[in-house]
Amino acid sequence: MRDDVVILGAAETEEVGRLPETSTLELHVQSARRALADAGLGLHQIDGIATVSTGGPGPVAVAHALGITPTYVDGTSVGGSSFLFHVRHAVAAIRAGHATAVLITHGESGRSRVGAAPWARQPDSSMAQFEMPYGVLGPPTTFTIPALRFLQETGNTLEHLAEVAVAQRRWSSRNSRAMYRDEVTVDEVLGARMVAWPFTLLMCCLVTDGGGALVVTSREFAEAHGSDLPLVNVAGTGEAATTPMVSQMEDMSTCRQFTLSSQAAFREAGMGPSDIDHLMIYDAFAHVPLYGLEDMGFVGRGESGAFVAEGNTSPGGSLPMNTNGGGLSYTHTGMYGMFAIQESVRQLRGQAEAQVDDVETSLVLGNGGMFMSAATLVLTRG
Amino acid sequence: MPITDTKPRADVADRFVPKASPETRPFWDGTAAGELRIQSCTDCDRPFFYPRSSCPRCGGEALEWITCSGRASLYSYVISQRPAPGFEPPTVIAVVELEEGPRMMTNIVGVPPEPQFLPLDLPLQVTFEQRGDLAIPVFEPSESEVAR
Ligand SMILES: [Zn+2]
């Protein structure tokens, strides 16, 4: 296990949810300031910046708005897991001596659309020609398409999809920052308004405003210059990408990039699923955590639904998962990956609202696009 | 239609019309002629979709266009309740597996948009929906299924 690069600072915007008075750029700036304060660093100590380069202000605008002149810039833009990619790249850059302290920012006015770029795609792009003609309206009608094949091939059921939403409400009911906090039953989830059968509204993620930022640096620099907050080791990382179009997934009953990115992260950390105390799986929709549990090897094929239904991922369970309430109940700006990392850091520091006892290791699995890309972080305390 | 009925009606003319790109033009020429044409690699003898300039399997650049049988099976789908422009929900948004192997996104038409009529692996047949200058491939249950 490597422990030479750490997450020194981590913070979200003061509020997440409905923020119609805050622009996209300001969400980046606000979360960055809070993460710097958390790290105990000043602007002049940051020499690296990373954020997604499309659909938002991008790394140059964010650095300039803050007053930073970076000499390491990463604009990797592969959907909602981009921030996990940024962590991985920052670790490599720090080890290579290309950067000392990298600030990774996210801000998105997903709900209020203040200062946000319009969603547009060229009509002669591949997606426009071969997916958009069929009445798809973003993730709820495309990300969801693989689920029926997954259920049929694995033997998981519709009730299991609902159990994911039920388990995550148990967590969000303990989290005052979560947008949805009332516990729900399987019947209530299945009986909620239908969005795209078999997905009801309660199996689909929220749409919110918010932001978050991280400061990644060497252990040596953190101990010499940083705050006294507990450090979080970046013990292992992985990344992978497959197809830009969900219709071209190789096999809709499994997500290959979840497996590839997690195998790389486990290998680097010298760990396996049984070493993980706490788990965050990017849950844009209720089926994604089931894929994640199976494709990363936490359970066998076809066992994820029963594993969740038996309470293993719920409060008091053997593998607490999505303990902020996840994208289904906590917050989902459109690029949720940053919030999954933030919750892992909080759990490892012992700062979470729904704190799990004795979290020494936490794994974050990020999804990008609609089963397009993935990245994995294995984080450890200390 | 009674004058009190102000519910907006879905009009196929409002549906999204994509634009062919140079490398996809033969595909759209095919649909205009009532044929589903995809590419196949002459090196590894594998058909693939979507159109591009090299084989995604072996990297080969010696490609040919083949005309599909139009037969396919239902691979996975959702029944969307969201009102996309020109669509009156519920809409079946599906991925089908062509008899030749590749998969494509499409709509399933000619069958009630309810799960009991849409078992996975249901045999399907291509048909085309004229939209602007382009004919969009959609699928309906194959005739042998309808006759059952
Ligand atoms: Zn080939």
Automatic annotation (TrEMBL), chain A:
InterPro entries: Thiolase (IPR002155), Thiolase-like (IPR016039), Thiolase_C_2 (IPR055140)
PANTHER family: ACETYL-COA C-ACETYLTRANSFERASE, NON-SPECIFIC LIPID-TRANSFER PROTEIN-LIKE 2
GO molecular function annotations of the record: acyltransferase activity, transferring groups other than amino-acyl groups
Source organism per UniProt: Aeromicrobium tamlense
Name of this protein: Acetyl-CoA acetyltransferase
Domain Thiolase C-terminal: 238-381
Automatic annotation (TrEMBL), chain B:
InterPro entries: ChsH2_C, ChsH2_Znr, NA-bd_OB-fold, Thioester_dehydratase-like
Domain ChsH2 C-terminal OB-fold per the UniProt entry, residue ranges: 65-128
Domain ChsH2 rubredoxin-like zinc ribbon: 28-64
Domain of life from the UniProt record: Bacteria
Protein name: OB-fold domain-containing protein
Highest classification ranks of the organism: Bacteria, Bacillati, Actinomycetota, Actinomycetes, Propionibacteriales
